[in-house]
C-alpha cells in the first residue's frame, strides 16, 4: 500500500507543474505536446528549387524549416538516395543523355504502369551522380534545371547536422520510405534481401542519431507492414501516412485504387482502407506501432463544393469550397496519443476552401495539427508566427496532455 506522502507527492508535483504551465509566458498550442507546430520542408524548398537536392534543402533551412523531407529510393548498388519516386525520367535530365538511352523501360509500381521510363534501381550511385535534377511542377522556376545533383541519405544527414551547428537550431530530417513493397522486391532481385531497404535506413539513422525517440527524425510511410517491422527495430518516431484519390464535392474522401488503401494491404487482398486508418478504431490500431499520423489535409478539415464563386473570379474551383470545420480526426488522433502532420500546402496549387495559402495553413494550425508539409517554407513559417496565442486554459490542458503522452510507450 502506498503511504499518503507517496500519493500526495506526485499530485503536488503535477499541480505545481500545472500552475507553472499556466503562468508561463511562452506561447502554447493545442498540439499533442503543447509546442508550436513544425514546418516541414516538403521535398526541400521545392516551390523555388528542384526538389530533393542539397541546394533545395539548404534553401528551406534558410527560410526557417524545422525539418527537411528526403523521400528515399534505392540504387542498383544499394545506396539510399533522395527522389520522390523510383521513376526518374522527369525529375532528372536522364532523357537527354545518350549513354543511358538503353535503360529506358516499362515497369509497374503499386498498380501503376510506367511506360518508357527510367528507374533509379537500374543505375549505380556513380551513374546517378552524372544526372542533374529538374523542376517537376509546371509554372515553377526552371533556371536551375540540370545544375544540382541527386543526394544520398548520408549527404542529407550531413547537411542537416552542419546547418544545425551553423544556425544554432536543431534541423531534423523526415525520411519517407517510398513504395516499400516494390523496393523490397527490388532489394531481393539485387541480392540484398527483402528487408534491406528498411534495415539500411535504420542502421544509417542509428549511426547518425542513436536509437532514440528523442532524435530529430521521423520515418514515414504509406504502407503499414513496413512500419510495424520498423517498430521492432527502432525507437525513432514512426508516422503512418494516409492517402486518398480525391475529395468529393460533399467533403467525403474518394477512395479509388491504387489510392484507396496501403499497397501492402492491397497485395494481400486486405480490406483496410486509408479512411479506416483515421477512424477511432483505426487510430487506436495505428497507435500500436506508430507515434503519429500524416493524413492528406481534406481528412482533417471538411470543405464542400456547393457551386458558389466565393473568390469572385468567375471560376468555381477548389479555392471556392465552403469550409465547414474540423472532421474530428485531429482530436481523435490526439486522444490516441498520436501527433498529426498534414500535407501538402502549396502557394500555387491545391488550395481547398482558401485563396490565400497562408490563411489556409493558419486554419489547420488553429485546428491543432502538430506539423505541416509545405513546398513554400517561408509561407509556413509566417503562418505559424501569425496564429494567435491560445487561451491560458489550453496551456494547462496541453501540459497535462504531454504528461500523458510521455507516459505512453508504443508496444508491438
Secondary structure elements and pairings:
Blueprint: H1 4-23, E1 38-41, H2 54-62, E2 67-68, E3 71-74, E4 80-82, E5 105-109, E6 112-117, H3 125-128, H4 153-167, E7 172-173, E8 176-177, H5 180-189, H6 196-209, E9 218-221, H7 225-231, E10 237-242, E11 246-247, E12 253-254, H8 263-266, H9 274-277, H10 280-286, E13 292-295, E14 301-304, E15 322-326, H11 329-335, E16 339-345, H12 357-367, E17 371-374, H13 377-386, H14 392-407
Parallel strand pairs: 1-2, 1-17, 2-7, 3-8, 9-10, 10-13, 13-16, 16-17
Antiparallel strand pairs: 3-4, 5-6, 11-12, 14-15
Helix pairs in contact: 1-14, 2-4, 12-13
Query: How many E-type strands?
Result: 17
Low-confidence regions: 1-26, 392-412
Radius of gyration: 22 Å
State mean pLDDT (0 to 100 scale).
91
**Shape label:** globular
Which strand order do you get reading across the main beta sheet?
A: 7-2-1-17-16-13-10-9
Structural class: alpha/beta
> Major sheet: size, sense and barrel closure?
8 strands, parallel
Total of helices: 14
**Cα distance spanning the termini:** 31 Å
Strand content: 15-25%
Helix content: 25-40%
